[in-house]
Amino acid sequence: MSLSRAPRRRRSTSGRAILLTAVTLASALTLTACGDGGSTSAGSAGGNYVTGPSGISTVAKADRAEAPKLDGATVDGKTLDTTTLKGKVVVLNVWGSWCPPCRAEAPYFAKVSKELGDAGKDVAFVGINTRDNSTQNAAAFEQNFGITYPSLYDPDGKLMLRFPKGTLNAQSIPSTIVLDKQGRIAARTLVAVNEEQLRSMIDPLLAEQ
């Protein structure tokens, strides 16, 4: 009898291992803050992308994929459609008022967006506010940190699901995605950024012809 039971125990252990692996993989894909060292990966945004030591991934100009249309109501009750911003470098920042790393990077977004705007640069900043139960908390966050650009209100994270599979999409909160002047996905980071990192994502795209 002990011999007949052994295979069943082995199968049960194997099944538990497979289930644990599946759960671990699913957990890794949830929206959490993360960062990697330098690496090169294939298949994103139509070709290869390079991730530097700071966690910023960039895509060569010839390999960039079209960004999806992101539209809807904003935190201040207006409407916005990102496809109308073509011709400008567009900085998309995914954030939540409850998120400590978002609070840490917010002053840099306020500073850089104001300075580039005052300088007349062809750049537009758009926030994507997510997982906030009401616009009141989001509006208070914007006021506290001096954020003057609009943020789409996306409490359920539906806008982030519009990014095509395999592109440099938003997989954490905060995330920052920068589109080139043709509306294509050019750079992304899945961690909070400082001023230097933010400008390093924007300046090369502003210089492109």
Largest sheet: 8 strands, mixed
Report strand %: 15-25%
What are the low-pLDDT stretches, counting only 5+ consecutive residues below 50?
Answer: 1-47
End-to-end Cα distance: 77 Å
Backbone CA Rg: 20 Å
Percent of residues in helices comes to 25-40%
The beta-strand count equals 10
Features:
single chain; 209 residues; alpha+beta; 8-stranded mixed beta sheet; two-stranded antiparallel sheet; 10 strands; disordered N terminus
Description:
This protein has 209 residues and is of the alpha+beta class. Strands 1-2-3-10-9-6-7-8 form an eight-stranded mixed sheet, covered by helices on one side. It has a two-stranded antiparallel sheet with strand order 4-5. It is built from four helices and ten strands. Mean pLDDT is 84; it is low at 1-47. The protein has helices at residues 2-28, 100-118, 135-145, 195-207; strands spanning 39-44, 47-51, 56-59, 71-73, 79-81, 89-95, 123-129, 151-153, 175-179, 185-189. The protein starts with a helix and ends with a helix. 33% of the residues lie in helices and 23% in strands. Strand 4 (71-73) and strand 5 form a beta hairpin.
